[in-house]
Amino acid sequence: MLRPLQETFRAADFPDLLVGLESPDDAAVYRVSEELALVLTLDFFTPIVDDPYQYGAIAAANAMSDVYAMGGEVVLALNIAAFPPKMPAAIIAEILRGGAEKVAEAGGVIAGGHTLDDEEPKYGLAVLGFVHPSRVATKAGARPGDQLALSKPLGVGLITTAAKGDQAQPEHVQAAVESMLQLNRRAARLMRAAGFHAATDITGFALLGHAHEMAEQSGVRLRFHLDQLPFLPGARRYAEQWLFPGGACRNQEAYRASVQLGPGVGEEMEMLLYTPETSGGLLIALPPESLARLQALCRAEGQPLWVVGEVIEGEGIEVIR
Questions:
Q1: Which domains does the chain have, with CATH numbers?
Q2: Taking the CB of residue 97, how many other CB atoms lie within 10 A of it?
């Protein structure tokens, strides 16, 4: 019987591994000097849009998001790809071009990669970033009294699922694609400039799953105000039509024990908050004075930001109207 990885690689044996298996953070962080730490992550998935260039760019943005969630900057990336042997070379080239141009937008470079044959296409990146060892962002720093801010609207996962079933309006799909293509680089830079206590990006575990991890790691309770949460156009409509992906049910099963819903939070909205996101925004916990600075910086640079809740004493998550 294999021992768990945590037993094989004990944190005490690797003092320069600042973030690893012992915490559910977004990427690994390894210190190489007093001034420099490496941020390492990888992510890949099957197509969620039909356009190959957009697919490549979205997959790249999603993979790089974990570096920004850790407070770092992207330096280089490696392609991770699996393509059907009969897929036209022109389509493969567009996927790879989308990924490469998104990495270039982030200030990084594609330095190679690995591909294999697979009947179902898959694409993503292994990403290397830099961060100062004393400025690493984790999920473990939220404190009672902090405010919660979100840098992108929710609903991508529901809209792309509706699109797969030909149930989504083209303008709703376009808004979701534009959101997924948006890097979290600027939001992370402004977050660092304003000062913060904890951060994560909202991806496969949905808002409530990633918030649960922040609450658990910080030893606090996160309270969200449903009426303050931003949603992409069409998301609420598709929630009412119950077009949720299977991942929403899996997230609900995994996290519902730690989530308390207030009066007026309907079942369809609950499921929407459990729906996986792709290339979602940053969820940031920061003190009120830092929030004021962040809001001013975001206004000056045209970066969207929504104040969606607060951190209080206790444990778990609550959602109120």
A1: 5-134 (3.30.1330.10), 138-320 (3.90.650.10)
A2: 14
